[in-house]
Amino acid sequence: METVVIPASAPFEEVLAAVTAARPTHLVGYATVVGRLARAALAGDLDIQPVRVSTNSEPLLDEDRQAIAEAWNAPVHNQWGSTEIGAAATGCGRGAGLHVCEDEVVLERVDANGVPVAPHEPAAHTLATGLANRTFPFIRYDLGDEVAVLPGPCECGSEFVRLADIAGRLDDDFRYPTCTVPASVFRSVLGTNPRIAEYQVRQTATGARILAVGSPDVPSLTRAIARELRRQGLPDPEVEVELVDHLQRGSAAGKLRRFVALKESGRNSGL
Ligand SMILES: [Zn+2]
C-alpha cells in the first residue's frame, strides 16, 4: 500500500493537483475538503474512482455527504474523534450514524450538572474517558460536541452503540437580540449552490458577512440570505457576500470553521 499525505491547509488547487496525481483508491480526509473534491469531480475537474471514502476532523454535513455519494458512489465511513482521546466513533458504511468505539472510549452524555441523561434525552455535555492512553489519561473530558444516540440495532450486525452524525459544535447557532439563527439556515442556501466551492459565515451585529470561494451570483445570493434571515425573525438584516480565492483555515490543525459566531458579552453568565 502506498500512502500519500496532502496537507488540508494547502491551497485547494494544490490539493486537487496532488489528489489527481495520486489517483487514490481509498480517500481519507477532512470532511469539507473531501466534499470539495467531490464537487470538483462532479464538475469534471477531478477524475478518480475511490472504492472507499473516509471523512474526519470536521462534521460531515449533508451537502458534503451527498456530493461524495453522487461523485463516486462509494461507501462513506465518517469518523469522529479528538486529538486528546483519539477515535471516539466511526461509521460502518451500512447503517446511519457512527458506532462508538466502546473498546477505546467511555462516552457519557450528561446534563448541565454532570448527571447522566437517558439515551433519548438531550445532553448538555458529552464526556469522554479514553481507555488506551495511560501516559496522559483524559477522564470525563468534555468534548464540546452535541451527540445523540440512535435507537435500535444496526444492519451491519455490530452491537456497539450508534450516535447520530455529529452536527457540530453547540455554538454554531448565531444568537441575535431578537432571535437565534441555526447554522442550517445559511447552509441550506450556500451548501446547495453548485457555484460555491467553499464558504465561511461570520456573524455581525446586524446580520452576516459571508466569504465564498467560487463564482456565485452575488446580488441574488445576498438577497436570498437576507430573505432567510428575515424569515428567522431578524429585521433589516445586513448581509455582505465577498468572493475570495481561499479561506483561512485554523493554524493549529487546518480546520475550516464554516460558522463563526459573534461573542456576546454576558452570554455565559446567565444574563
Ligand atoms: Zn453498523
Please specify the SSE layout and strand pairing.
Elements (H helix, E strand, L loop, with lengths): L11 H11 L3 E5 H12 L9 E5 L5 H11 L3 E7 L3 E5 L7 E3 L4 E6 L14 E6 L10 E2 L6 E2 L11 E2 L10 E2 L4 E2 L1 H8 L5 E9 L2 E8 L3 H14 L6 E6 L15 E2 L11
Parallel strand pairs: 1-2, 2-3, 13-16, 14-15
Antiparallel strand pairs: 3-4, 4-5, 5-10, 6-7, 7-8, 9-10, 11-12, 13-14
Helix pairs in contact: 2-3, 4-5
Bound molecules: zinc ion.
Zinc ion binds next to loops.
* Main sheet: strand order: 1-2-3-4-5-10-9
The second-level CATH architecture of the largest domain is 2-Layer Sandwich
Which small compounds were modeled alongside the protein? zinc ion
So what's the CATH class of the largest domain? Alpha Beta
Number of helices: 5
Order of helices and strands, N to C? HEHEHEEEEEEEEEEHEEHEE
- Going by CATH, the homologous superfamily of the largest domain would be ANL, C-terminal domain
Using DSSP, what is the number of strands? Answer: 16
Model description:
Keywords: Ligase. One of its GO terms (molecular function) is ligase activity. There is one protein chain. The chain has 271 residues and is α/β, with parallel strands linked by helices. It has three domains: 1-74; 80-168, no CATH class; 170-260, GMP Synthetase, Chain A, domain 3 (2-Layer Sandwich), CATH 3.30.300.30. The protein is built from five helices and 16 strands. It has helices spanning 12-22, 31-42, 62-72, 183-190, 218-231; strands at 26-30, 52-56, 76-82, 86-90, 98-100, 105-110, 125-130, 141-142, 149-150, 162-163, 174-175, 180-181, 196-204, 207-214, 238-243, 259-260. A seven-stranded mixed beta sheet has the order 1-2-3-4-5-10-9, covered by helices on one side. The protein has a four-stranded mixed beta sheet with strand order 15-14-13-16. Strands 6-7-8 form a three-stranded antiparallel beta sheet, with no helix packed on it. Helix 3 links the parallel strand 2 and strand 3. Helix 2 (31-42) packs across helix 3. Mean pLDDT is 87; it is low at 264-271. It binds zinc ion. Zinc ion is lined by residues 92, 94-95, 99, 154, 156, 158.
